[in-house]
């Protein structure tokens, strides 16, 4: 399963009609908000959501951005993964 990067998301499938995605919004120069995660029923239970959040985290690290995880799923992933917490902001 290939995770692709869109202009404001990481997704699987087609950007306009994705099977799974984590959506983000850029806030200023130093932050992104993870505001929505969606995984189609047939992909659930396969760690797809976790992989999408991880892709967003890796992007934030590379771009030196802080992350505000407003989406409940992304927030839970940040709570489960102490290594993500250094990006909170």
From TrEMBL:
Stored PROSITE patterns: GNAT (PS51186), GNAT_YJDJ (PS51729)
GO molecular function list: acyltransferase activity, transferring groups other than amino-acyl groups
Every N-acetyltransferase domain range: 1-89, 2-89
Keywords assigned: Transferase
Name listed for the protein in its UniProt record: Acetyltransferase
Organism: Rummeliibacillus stabekisii
């Amino acid at each position: 399963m290939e995770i692709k990067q869109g202009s404001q998301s990481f997704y699987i499938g087609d950007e306009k009609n994705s099977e799974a995605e984590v959506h983000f919004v850029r806030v200023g120069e130093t932050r992104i908000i993870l505001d929505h995660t969606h995984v189609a029923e047939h992909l659930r239970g396969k760690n797809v959501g976790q992989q999408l959040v991880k892709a967003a985290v890796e992007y934030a690290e590379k771009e030196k951005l802080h992350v505000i995880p407003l989406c409940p799923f992304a927030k839970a992933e940040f709570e489960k993964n102490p290594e993500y917490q250094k990006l909170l902001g």
